[in-house]
Specification:
Elements lengths: L1 E7 L4 E7 L16 E2 L8 E5 L8 E7 L2 E7 L9 E2 L16 E4 L2 E9 L13 E7 L7 E8 L7 E8 L4 E8 L12 E7 L4 E4 L7 H6 L2 E2 L10 E2 L2 E5 L18 E2 L10 E5 L8 E5 L12 E5 L4 E3 L1 H9 L1
Parallel strand pairs: 16-23
Antiparallel strand pairs: 1-20, 1-22, 2-17, 2-19, 2-21, 3-7, 4-5, 5-6, 6-7, 8-9, 9-10, 10-11, 12-13, 13-14, 14-15, 18-20, 22-23
Length: 324
């Protein structure tokens, strides 16, 4: 059995224990670019596609030299002498009629190319994986390839992952890492997320809400209350955390002097920890021991218990409990 705790709206710090009582629903349980600058050779480049320019960005051109895919800045004509070679298999563009170009804010644009690798792709990676390339045109000599590597297709093992989420005005492009041991009860969960920012066309570490707004809005609230009751405790095993992993064991050591904190600046919204409980033991209560008044650690205003049916602790409940 796995139990996952998410923090929201304030830095998290607490020690928790679980009560084994009446029957209740059981709790369920980036890669570096392979791109390189191309040395000029006599073989001509066949231009395949060209994307639109952005603010202070030339157009981006995609070309083919032999079986090698290239990208180049194209202020007017494409500068193939300063092109960058991609690891993306050339088979990825066979059926492509336009070059994808997504708005990413500040008037800038990015191109994301995705290809499911097959035995005919020619890529030296496992069949069934997805090869993803993220590239932006720049006002420098060469375009900037931010990601060019194989990613998980089925989330069955650890690896890199890219999430592309279109919005009303711009597209959110986030690169991170996936680990099957650290996920939201079966929901694919991005670790160490870095978002592409339009202002400087770079990937930046961000605080990332792993639960969708729809899931959070639909979650029933569980109101916590102060209690002196000492319920039978189930021994939990820490699995890991999205941040602050080095002190995750402090969340379950039953000591009021130690606690888990996400160790992120600001609110730390979206950070989480995963705990394992015995499969045969039903869980009917959760006990949170919050930091003592005057402690440098801050109590969370809201905590999400992620199970098969996500539940949320009421924000006011922890304010009351921390004052008890």
């Amino acid at each position: 059995m796995r139990v996952l705790i998410l923090c929201s709206a304030a830095s998290c710090a607490f020690t928790i224990s679980f009560a084994a009582q009446a029957e209740a629903p059981a709790l369920a349980g980036p890669g570096l670019p392979s791109a390189a600058l191309v040395s000029p050779v006599n073989e001509p480049v066949k231009e395949l596609l060209r994307g639109p320019p952005g603010r202070k960005q030339p157009a981006l051109g995609l070309g083919l030299r032999g079986d090698t895919l290239l990208v180049a800045n194209c202020p007017t004509r494409c500068d193939w002498d300063n092109a960058v070679r991609l690891g993306l298999p050339s088979a990825a563009v066979r059926e492509m009629s336009t070059l994808p170009s997504d708005p990413i804010g500040a008037g800038r644009r990015a191109t994301v190319l995705k290809h499911e690798v097959s035995s005919e792709s020619g890529a030296d990676v496992a069949t069934g994986t997805h090869w993803v390339t993220i590239v932006v045109a720049t006002d420098e000599g060469s375009p900037r390839v931010l990601f060019d590597a194989a990613t998980n297709a089925d989330n069955a093992k650890p690896g890199d992952q890219v999430l592309v989420t279109p919005g009303d005005k711009q597209t959110e492009i986030v690169v991170g890492r996936f680990d099957p041991a650290l996920q939201l009860c079966g929901r694919p969960t991005l670790l160490e997320p870095r978002m592409l920012v339009g202002e400087d066309l770079q990937l930046h570490r961000v605080k990332y809400q792993r639960l969708s707004s729809e899931v959070r809005a639909a979650a029933p609230r569980i109101v916590a209350s102060p209690s002196d009751r000492r319920a039978p405790l189930v021994r939990l095993s820490p699995v890991g955390a999205s941040s602050g992993a080095e002190n995750v064991a402090a969340a379950v050591d039953n000591s009021p002097e130690t606690y888990w904190t996400e160790r992120r600046s600001g609110a730390g919204e979206g950070e989480f920890l995963v705990l394992r409980a015995p499969e045969a033991v039903p869980i009917s209560a959760v006990n949170f021991a919050l930091p003592r008044i005057g402690s440098p650690a801050l109590s969370p205003r809201e905590v999400w218990l992620v199970t098969d049916t996500t539940r949320s602790m009421s924000p006011s409940s922890f304010e009351r409990a921390s004052k008890a």
